[in-house]
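From the shared-data thread, chain only:
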Amino acid sequence: MFDSLSQIPVENQIFYAVLGFSWTMYLWEAYLAYRQRRIYRSTTNVPQELGKIIDSETFEKSRLYQLDKSNFSFWSGLYSETEGTLVLLLGGIPYLWDIAGEEIKYFGFGPEYEITQSLVFLTLATLFTALTGLPWSLYNTFVIEEKHGFNQQTLGFFIIDALKKFAVTQCILLPVTSLLLYIIKIGGDYFFIYAWLFTLAVSLILVTIYADYIAPLFDKFTPLPDGELKTEIEAMASSISFPLTKVYVVEGSKRSSHSNAYFYGFFKNKRIVLFDTLLEDYSPLNKGEEAKPVQPENDGDQGDSKSKPKHKKQGCNNQEILAVLGHELGHWKLGHTVKNIVISQMNSFLCFFLFAALIGRKELFVAFGFNDSQPTLIGLMIIFQFIFSPYNELLSFCLTVLSRRFEFQADAFARNMGKASELYSSLIKLNKDNLGFPVADWLYSMWHYSHPPLLERLRALGSVKQD
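Structure, as tokens:
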């Protein structure tokens, strides 16, 4: 067996090893999803342990929602894996590279303009990905999310949003890629250090400017009005020396009724962002005169999304919002954000170091149809996406485990701030609002869940009396 294997050209061994690992991971993911779907199908009644946490109507809604999502994920995943396999088997990557070469040749550029050809290739590849993924995105938004009451977008809003996302992505991706390729080409023996430093700088810049300059292109951000909630948020931030400068409400209700909250910024310039769907007193999705949505500056924008509320009551009260923020601030106080950045950058440096060791191996390029050339961008794609895939899967699992640990620690931080009862009730409310299913297969949960299941978090908070 080993003798016959050694007779196979090394480039063929590489190609089929990559393909085999890809399908192995797909089958593993499909098996895990099957286990979880079995839970969705069989658990039709509220387990006794959850009887005081979730009512039977919400339980059934969440079960059907998650079952629909799981079925959709199966078919979209199968399509994605099949498409990727056909692209590799039919030589789609070198074919697209040749098309990019013909395009630049039309404008008088030869093969020596590799960076220019790389940018055309990247544009064509991202356009192909966007177009092939569009039907799946449309189905997910206007069938599944619509069916279960989450979608707030019109078709026009969706299309304009997709075009803006593509344009913004290209505006960032193309110049960053061109500079990275240039650094790799002129960096000499230590180019991997310069490439890593460049990607580090880019990531820090993007994190800094995202919420101020990029996110507002898609969603409206409004300062949280003065009042009790803002005063209490500022007092909480001050109590743990969190350098809060601004609190925003983002108009997430124009696209979805899912809710969220996060903070961003470096050093002494931190901002908190709350989705309007998280705020019981501000969510436009709530009916009744007590709902006070944040008013947009341009009334004409109202026509871009659906105006009909789909939930009788959405979001958390002020004390519950403070508990949620206590959890988020716990991530900062406990250094989770810094630890994640350090892990990410250590991984990035290691990957660039290994890339430097492998980029000269011609058989890697031949394995994917590049017999006469070794373009740097193609090398990045082959090594980072294909060769590193086993390592990437292992790292992803380890980070998932670490993330769950961080979540428990952040919950404990909020509990120690005296917010246990409010966090307890807010977790239940958010689970209901987002139709999270509280029963999970242990293996599926272990592999996928970056946040612990609801019941585990509630147990960790202790026996807190609910209203």
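Strands lie at 221-223, 244-250, 261-264, 270-275.
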